[in-house]
């Protein structure tokens, strides 16, 4: 059993060895009309399968990823495009272009930019190579360790910042939020159908609200007996979206769509937030959704009575002493510090007001209404 991260320390590790094997990966793009039933079935069809939904395009990228015998020919490598070293000037220029689209761009312009990037990634096999150098077609067959792990940037040589990893804080490159949450497998089809209904109201909104180049990454997680594990087999949804570098945050285009999706997952469908990939508001009340939360807190108190491994933030997330991770105040919903309940939590002076969601009407999101 392993316990690690902000909520604990490694206590015990048990390793189970397996004979060396390879994996065979093929990406298949299909329309998303049948996505709700597929999201419940796909994880059982392929051992390592997942999917990437491009909602604004009405398409799904299915990854057929299965174990094959070690004698299968191929020395494929998963070298994700975003996790490669890139010219620093290119990273800065791309961020500047993204900021211009946020400030002055139209949904049509944002969607056009997304389609260009998605097409380029498809031509490059999404970062997979057949021999560690070039992509020549599917399937990509390679050893488990070369397919499971990805990203060559960390091994790239130092060159005086002429090139950099996209996340390097010394470079004014990409800057975004990453939110992730899991929904029980039995409820995931209904959740996806609601997301489709929200998309259908304004497909262009998702080119700006979400990072359309990445789409919605959909993965599968088995139920766990751990105190803070998933009680049910679940589907993980991973979202990436623009974040302003301005102090205190700045409203982003179609933020209400993303916030409604998040609240829908967590509140309507009882989803669980990823412990490391969310803003404050997602954790409010989350601990109550874990059946073994009380057991975890008792163990925590037993082994760490002085709170050595605790912090103000972790106590708030865990609901210790009635704490809450939400920080309510002016413009708090812009940065996800709260779920809005008053217009002042948005940015009314810029035309953003607290309103119900469009599909999940119990949601409260900052909607752009121009003038009131």
From TrEMBL:
Record carries keyword Transcription: no
Reaction(s) catalysed (UniProt annotation): L-gulono-1,4-lactone + O2 = L-ascorbate + H2O2 + H(+)
Cofactor(s) the record lists: FAD
Any single biological process term in GO: L-ascorbic acid biosynthetic process
Molecular-function annotations in GO: D-arabinono-1,4-lactone oxidase activity; flavin adenine dinucleotide binding; L-gulonolactone oxidase activity; oxidoreductase activity
Listed SUPFAM superfamilies: FAD-linked oxidases, C-terminal domain
Catalytic activity, EC: 1.1.3.8
Domain L-gulonolactone oxidase 2-like C-terminal: 330-367
NCBIfam families: pln_FAD_oxido
PANTHER family: FAD-BINDING PCMH-TYPE DOMAIN-CONTAINING PROTEIN (PTHR13878:SF147), GULONOLACTONE OXIDASE (PTHR13878)
Family recorded in the similarity comment: Belongs to the oxygen-dependent FAD-linked oxidoreductase family.
Name of this chain's protein: L-gulonolactone oxidase
């Amino acid at each position: 059993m392993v316990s690690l991260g902000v909520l604990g320390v490694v206590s015990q590790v048990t390793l189970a060895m397996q004979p060396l094997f390879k994996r065979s990966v093929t990406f298949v793009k299909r329309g998303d009309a049948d996505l709700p039933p597929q999201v419940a079935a796909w994880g059982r069809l392929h051992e390592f399968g997942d999917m990437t939904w491009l909602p604004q395009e009405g398409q799904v990228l299915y990854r057929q990823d299965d174990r094959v015998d070690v004698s299968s020919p191929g020395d494929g490598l998963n070298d994700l495009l975003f996790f490669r070293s890139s010219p620093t000037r290119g990273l800065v220029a791309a961020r500047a272009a993204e900021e211009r689209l946020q400030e002055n761009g139209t949904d049509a312009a944002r969607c056009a930019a997304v389609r260009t990037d998605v097409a380029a990634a498809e031509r490059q096999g999404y970062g997979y190579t057949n021999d560690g150098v070039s992509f020549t077609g599917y399937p990509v067959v390679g050893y488990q360790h070369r397919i499971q792990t990805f990203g060559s940037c960390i091994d790239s040589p130092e060159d005086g910042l002429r090139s950099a990893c996209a996340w390097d804080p010394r470079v004014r490159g990409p800057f975004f939020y990453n939110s992730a949450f899991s929904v029980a497998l039995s409820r995931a089809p209904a959740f996806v159908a609601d997301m489709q209904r929200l998309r259908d109201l304004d497909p262009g909104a998702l080119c700006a609200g979400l990072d359309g180049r990445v789409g919605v990454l959909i993965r599968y997680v088995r139920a766990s007996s751990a105190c803070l594990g998933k009680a049910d087999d679940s589907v993980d949804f991973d979202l990436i979206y623009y974040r302003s570098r301005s102090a205190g945050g700045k409203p982003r285009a179609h933020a209400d769509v993303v916030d409604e999706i998040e609240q829908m997952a967590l509140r309507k469908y009882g989803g669980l937030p990823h412990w490391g990939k969310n803003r404050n508001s997602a954790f409010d009340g989350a601990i109550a959704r874990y059946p073994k939360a009380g057991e975890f807190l008792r163990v925590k108190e037993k082994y760490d009575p002085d709170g050595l491994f605790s912090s103000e933030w972790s106590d708030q997330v865990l609901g210790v002493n009635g704490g809450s991770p939400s920080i309510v105040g002016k413009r708090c919903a812009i940065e996800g510090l709260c779920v809005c309940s008053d217009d002042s939590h948005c940015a009314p002076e810029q035309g953003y007001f607290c309103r119900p969601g469009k599909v999940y009407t119990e949601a409260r999101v900052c909607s752009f209404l121009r003038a009131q």
